[in-house]
Amino acid sequence: MNILEVRELKKYYGEGENQVKALDGVSLSVEKGEFLAVVGTSGSGKSTLLHMMGGLDTPTSGQVVVAGKDISSLSRDELTIFRRRKIGFVFQSYNLLPLMNVYDNIVLPIKLDGIRPDETYVDQIIAALGLEEKRLAMPNQLSGGQQQRVALARALAAKPAIILADEPTGNLDSKTSMDVLGLMKTSGERFGQTIVMITHNDEIAQMAGRIIRLEDGRICGQSGQSDRKQKSSQGSRRAGDFHA
Fold it and tell me: Domain containing 162: what range?
């Protein structure tokens, strides 16, 4: 079952000779429970793609379907609610609120939605991510790796349909990066979460079950899960296999 479908997605900026094609006909699908990495250099369109998947930006054309819902059909208010309930975000910058402790940061999106947190589930996430002793700590008392684990816990806590992670280890050293990615992978598996991660780092991408490479706004190859074929940016032309 596909939890996410991207159909012929395009994002153009400007016109004429100055036109920039950040995304140029990208199509892909993500199965429920899958861990997908999208790899590309700076300017390849990977962050633009993630923003479109998460409803943070509007495509020039094409569709993004999350949990069976075409998010382009939603009003601004409907999209805000849908995003809060169905999509979890993990960013490079953590985005923790400095005046809230670890626990309050984790459950904040749930409370904003007017829902009582599932305390048992939240406790399981906190334990799985090794944050039990930091439950009441403030963000400025945490290391970078610990802050990113809190950000991951916050994304998991609302039980979203999908988690989108944009360079989640960009501010971390190599060892901490692999530790956090390992926790992200095992947590996703344990709690049945689907994860799409954007990264420029091929080594980090190897943690995922499938890798898609993006160049100049187009899919140019993939590996993993028997090199499952996706539509390329050329429509009927199949993308060549990529082995990172």
Answer: 2-14+37-225
What does the pLDDT read at residue 237? 40
**DSSP β-ladder status, 218-224 and 162-166:** unpaired
The three-state secondary structure class of 37 is strand
Number of domains in the chain: 1
Taking only the tens place, the pLDDT of each residue in 137-190 is 999 999 988 998 999 899 988 888 899 999 888 887 888 888 888 888 888 888
Q: 145 to each of 89, 131, 141, 152, 210, how far by Cα in Å? A: 16, 11, 12, 11, 24
Query: How many residues does this entry show for the chain?
Result: 244
Show the tokens assigned to 129: 């991510």
Question: Token pair for residue 53?
Answer: 């998947």
Closest alpha carbon to 162 in 69, 33, 42, 59: 33
SS3 206: coil
Residue 218 belongs to domain with CATH number: 3.40.50.300
Q: Is residue 22 part of a domain?
A: no
- Residue 243: predicted pLDDT: 37
Render pLDDT for 25-59 as a digit per residue (tens, 0 to 9).
Answer: 999 999 999 999 999 998 899 999 999 999 999 99
Instruction: Please name the helix (run of DSSP H) or strand (run of DSSP E) that holds residue 79, with its range, or none.
Output: helix 76-86
